[in-house]
Hints:
Strand 11 (236-245) and strand 12 form a beta hairpin. 13% of the residues are buried. The protein has helices spanning 31-39, 69-79, 166-181, and strands at residues 83-87, 90-94, 99-104, 118-122, 129-133, 138-141, 155-159, 184-192, 208-214, 224-228, 236-245, 251-259. Helix 1 crosses helix 2. The chain is α+β, with helices and mostly antiparallel strands. It folds into 3 domains: 6-90, no CATH class; 99-122 and 183-259; 129-181, no CATH class. Helices cover 14% and strands 29% of the residues. The chain is built from 3 helices and 12 strands; from the N terminus they run ααβββββββαβββββ. This is Tip attachment protein J domain-containing protein.
Amino acid sequence: VTLAAPAWNDVQMPEADGISKNDRIILSKFYDSLIVDVWSDSGMVPALDWSMTNGDKFTDPRDLTNENIFNFVQKAMATLNGLYWQQGGTVFFRNSYSSTGLTITRDDIVNWEGGDWSLIIDSSNQRSTVKVEGDSVSGSTSPAVEYAFTSGTETITYVNSELKSQKQVDRYATSKDPLHANAKVYATFKLDYDSPFQDYSVITLGKTMALKLPSGVGNSADLSLCNYSSGGDGELVVISKQMKRGINDIQFMEVHLQRRD
């Protein structure tokens, strides 16, 4: 920003004050302002699908002059535990999800009996305590873990010297809470795309679906192996889908899901 000379014609500013007419100054902006400025009038806006809430602001001491805008977006999405991906020339951002309205059961999955599907529940990232060490300030949070520990308290410590205040440390710790509270859940299976019972064409990247699989193959009264059907974050997010053809030219859709907490 260059200070316009005419605006200073009637103002006497001693050179010793450090600023005078025609001086060039650089103004530092917040992440949310940069995102709004760059994207609000761009042709990318119609392609975006995101929901963001701006929280407390704090100064970033780095020189951001030559930073790519995607660095800001990715940082914001990480703070919001959001989803960020690119498909072709379209970029998507989400921290809230829309449901397909589908509920997938074993009757939908091709070759369920033969085990042509997978469900991974990984609790290795769970921690009962998250500690954060900043610049002469520290904080902690206690995630409500999904599975009880058998080996006592599990603790993880993050060290980040850029955190200067108690509020920054507390917000950082809180942002890590979902990461260490619940297990990671992934599911992969194939669907008969031409099935007359459900419309699988509504399955798109970033949308969610309910997944209800019983633990017993022959007894539907068995306790559920998984039951993610409460809607929104309670469902699993579609992170990948592929169309394939099998015997007799049958169309299959291979779907990969991930739980987002």
